Amino acid sequence: MKFYADEMLGKLARWLRMCGMDVRYQNQVEDAHLLEISRKEKRVVLTRDTRLIKNLEPDEYLFISHDYLEDQFTEFFKEFPQLKTKLQPLSRCAECNTSLQEIQKSEVKDKVWPFVFQNQEKFTLCPQCDRIYWKATHVNKILSRLDRLLQPSEKT
Fold first, then answer.
1. In 3-state terms, what secondary structure has residue 83?
2. 142: phi then psi, degrees, rounded to nearest 5
3. Do residues 58 and 17 lie in contact, with contact meaning Cβ atoms separated by under 8 Å?
4. Three-state DSSP class for residue 96
5. Domain containing 80: what range?
6. How far apart are CA 79 and CA 100, in angstroms?
7. Strands 44-47, 22-25: pairing kind
8. Whether pLDDT at 13 is above 80
9. pLDDT in tens, 49-76
10. Rounded Cα gap, residues 89 and 71, in angstroms
11. Is pLDDT at 154 greater than 80 in this prediction?
């Protein structure tokens, strides 16, 4: 399943990408363009915009009613529970949504800090924006937060 998050849901888009979801997002996009692209690419629109949903069929969008990321995650996975079993954390670029590719350590030698090169063995590359990723200390924090976000909320 593919999604297009409107400009009010940038944080949700980023964290869904970190789960491995295909979530298109761009800041300051015109509604008409968002609708055109979402339909062309068969993406479900994630939105908080009540005016936007008037131009969509019920199966073309998920209206996110909550303000906080934790509640938005709960709302998202309540609607799409089957996606929880298909997660591939940290397999997409958090910035541009492209699938990451493994890259040989030798190919990153002059592209990362010497300390990183010396202490890391595995690297991935975003072929779209050329970001290089490795399992630094923040990865455990990200995975821990994803675990918390994916736990059912008792408020909803």
1. helix
2. -65, -50
3. no
4. coil
5. 1-156
6. 27
7. unpaired
8. yes
9. 999 999 999 999 999 999 999 999 999 9
10. 19
11. no
